[in-house]
Amino acid sequence: MLFLTACGGASTPADFDQEGKTAGAAEILESVEVTDAGEDTAPEVEFDAPLDITDTAVRAVTEGDGDVIEAGQTLQFHLVFLNADDGTVLQDSYESGQPQTLQLTDQLKEADPELFEVLVGTKVGSQIAYTAPLELPEGQQTATPNQLLVLKVISAETPPEPPKKLSSEEVAELEEAGQLPTVTLDGEGVPSIEFPDNEAPSDLVVKVIEEGTGEEITEADTIAANYTGWSWQGEQFDSSFERGEPSEFPLSGVIQGWTQGLSGLKEGAKVLLVIPSVMAYGDQAAQGPSGPLAFYVEIVEKVPAE
């Protein structure tokens, strides 16, 4: 995969030959022929060896019959590495049955513009030939041969829109519809949370229960806060109230839901945060609770910088 993201030369606009899109010094790949062998078997690749690899070259050797690939999508593809000097197969992902993943982001466009230009606009199912000269520090030698890569795109998915922070009006609508948890404080100010019988909101909810009157909090600040945290299934997993003292957190070093949810509030604020899993620890967290979470938070103070 490091080979895929190596930038081997100046970018040139993608052109079309009689079979598909090309970019870079595509004449290097003119002799490459690919015979598809199905979804689970590496294709047969033939070319006039050795390839004279002087620059980055990308060519859509065969065109698939799937949807047109768009920028921003996430691709899954199978990959064959071949020795560009004699045509022998070095490695492939078909044998393991584990496709590779590549996101067509601006970062890829900058790092490997030729590959990006050929992928965008081709179709799912296409076989793409790719090569670039090995770039080694001056004086260093390697036994690694020049390589030809042939990748077959097997799917292209548009990622879902990232969650947003809901406006106060949107939060009020959810509350009126009875779709938000209810916070209850006992006589000593210790909170408990009751959850509604619906799925958690897909966006970040910041329900201000009591406005603060102190200094405004920014993402760069460290705060002292009392809080309790609950899974959407109604299980409490953490509470500073039980420890008897507030905890200190740099807002730049906590989960995204806390960073975005608490910045902009003031010292003394009391809030309910409902955080989607992608802004917390994920759906299958290795550390921390999984899934959407709810927190009751009391911002005690902004901690002075040392």
Fold and architecture overview:
The chain is mainly beta and about 300 residues long. It folds into two domains: about 140 residues, Chitinase A, domain 3 (Roll), CATH 3.10.50; about 140 residues, Roll (Chitinase A, domain 3), CATH 3.10.50. Helices cover about 10% and strands about 35% of the residues. The chain is built from five helices and 18 strands. Strands 1, 2, 5, 6, 7, 8, 9 and 10 form an eight-stranded antiparallel beta sheet that branches. Strands 13, 14, 15, 16, 17 and 18 form a six-stranded antiparallel beta sheet that branches. Strands 3-4 form a two-stranded antiparallel sheet. The longest helix has 9 residues. The chain is elongated. About 5% of the residues have low confidence.
Q: What is the mean pLDDT?
A: 90
Task: Please give the largest β-sheet.
Answer: 8 strands, antiparallel
Kindly give the count of domains. Answer: 2
- Give me the count of strands: 18
How would the global form be characterised?
elongated
The computed structural class is mainly beta
C-alpha Rg (nearest Å): 27 Å
CATH architecture heading of the largest domain: Roll
Helical stretch tally: 5
* Helix content bin: 10-25%
At the fold tier of CATH, the topology name of the largest domain is Chitinase A, domain 3
Strand composition percent: 25-35%
State the CATH class of the largest domain.
Alpha Beta
| Through-space gap between termini | 43 Å
Order of SSEs: EEEEEEEEHHEEHEEEEEHEHEE
